[in-house]
Design a protein that fits this description.
Distance between the termini: 34 Å
Largest sheet: 7 strands, parallel
CATH topology of the largest domain: TIM Barrel
CATH superfamily of the largest domain: Enolase-like C-terminal domain
Strand content: 15-25%
Number of strands: 15
Radius of gyration: 20 Å
Bound molecules: 2-succinylbenzoate, magnesium ion
Order of helices and strands: EEEEHEHHHEEHEHEHEHEHEHEHEHE
Number of helices: 12
CATH architecture of the largest domain: Alpha-Beta Barrel
CATH class of the largest domain: Alpha Beta
Structural class: alpha/beta
């Protein structure tokens, strides 16, 4: 007998069952970006079970197809009718083998990521290891910034100041036509040394090149996703005309998109959202590929609950996550979260939740009050 107990060696983990919930959490502050306003967060929450253990993940799609094409209703249906019946009752040796079985389905990266990420958490717990260790990350905290939604300039100035005072390491300002250069001028004057970025969520075109060139005057760390959600080519053209590095978000939904963006110099910074790219397997590949091109990455956010937030934190401990992510304090979004632990930053650093898997557990009492629908899938 070994001196220390360890989990029995096993060749594969069998998924015994799944619980899919539709969850609604009110937002502390409405969040406005170029494409619309969110006042609440509605999302699929998935629990996979094996060997008496549970793994959790959430879907990051919006109710409307305004960020990318996926929707909450569409994903709930796909998960219930296709993806969960496909994996429940099956055994997988590792997350890569599960990801391979989902890969043939076209797109729907966020729905597939929900299943893949829940399996990562389950697998990590079955090995009694933190998710970060299995992903290849290390360290007990990550650098974070904040993403500030569109609002009146004077109010945004106050919010920038308050978040810098809390130690956040970078401020991202949401912009849109008519709410861009004057905002940047005011914020840059008030905070000459702050790490500032903008996120346009696809609201400009190459016809706006002059305006985007004017942004070069504000010493931005990067401009996030200025052009269309599916147009890497135009971003490559734009990068030849502006000095500020372009960071891509919506355009990168697969490893191949990342490769094409890197090869064409359309992205000098990469926003990795694990849900957007289909899960941790692809996120890690994009992380590695970006590193090979000497392109830094950071972890984007989708106003996640504590479950998605914990996944993001673990992923952000990989070595090429050298720019602050959007995974800020949960209390900025929700008065009460659906997990038992508090995910709060200290001086612009978010501690990695310790323990096996993603390191957090569901607050089942509060979750019950936040659950709109619940479906069980059994083997
Ligand atoms: O483009 O990064 C984005 C939220 C919803 C949809 C798109 C985006 C965002 C954010 C929020 O910027 C980041 C966060 O605080 O979670
Ligand atoms: Mg973005």
């Amino acid at each position: 007998m070994p001196a220390q107990s360890r989990p029995a060696l096993r060749s594969a983990l069998r998924i015994d069952g799944a619980t899919l919930r539709l969850v609604r959490l009110p937002l502390v502050t409405p969040f406005t970006i170029a494409t619309g306003t969110l006042t609440e967060k509605v999302f699929p929450l998935l629990t996979l079970r094996a060997d008496g253990l549970e793994g959790h993940a959430e879907g990051v799609m919006d109710p409307l197809p305004d960020y990318l094409e996926e929707t909450v209703a569409g994903a709930m249906d796909l998960l219930q009718t296709v993806l969960l019946p496909q994996v429940v009752g099956k055994s997988y040796a590792n997350p890569e083998s599960l990801a391979r079985t989902l890969a043939p389905w076209r797109a729907n990266h966020m729905a597939k990521a929900t299943v893949e990420m829940a399996f990562w958490d389950l697998w990590a717990r079955s090995l009694d290891l933190p998710l970060q260790t299995l992903l290849g990350g290390e360290g007990d905290a990550i650098d974070v910034g904040v993403s500030l939604g569109i609002g009146p300039i004077d109010q945004t100035l106050d919010r920038v100041g308050a978040h810098l005072a809390q130690g956040y390491k970078r401020i991202k300002l949401k912009v849109k036509p008519g709410h861009d250069l004057a905002l940047l001028d005011a914020v840059r004057r008030a905070y000459p040394d702050a790490h500032l970025t903008v996120d346009a969520n696809c609201c400009y075109t190459l016809a706006d090149t002059g305006l985007l060139q004017a942004m070069d005057g504000f010493a931005l760390d990067y401009i996030e996703q200025p052009l269309a959600w599916d147009d890497i080519h135009d971003h490559a053209t734009l990068q030849t005309r502006i000095r500020t590095p372009i960071c891509l978000d919506e355009c990168i939904r697969t490893v191949d998109h990342a490769r094409k963006a890197l090869q064409s110099d359309a992205a000098r910074v990469m926003n990795i959202k694990v849900g957007r790219v289909g899960g941790h397997v692809a996120a890690r590949q994009i992380h590695d590929l970006s590193a090979a091109f000497q392109v830094p990455v950071w972890c984007g956010g989708m106003l996640e609950s504590g479950i998605g937030r914990a996944h993001n934190i673990h992923l952000s401990t990989l070595p090429n996550f050298t720019k602050p992510g959007d995974t800020s304090s949960a209390s900025r979004y929700f008065t009460r979260d659906i997990i038992e632990q508090k995910l709060e930053t200290v001086d612009g650093r978010m501690p990695v939740p310790p323990g096996p898997g993603i390191g957090v557990s569901l607050d089942l009492d509060y979750l019950a009050t936040a659950t709109l629908a619940l479906h069980e899938v059994r083997a």
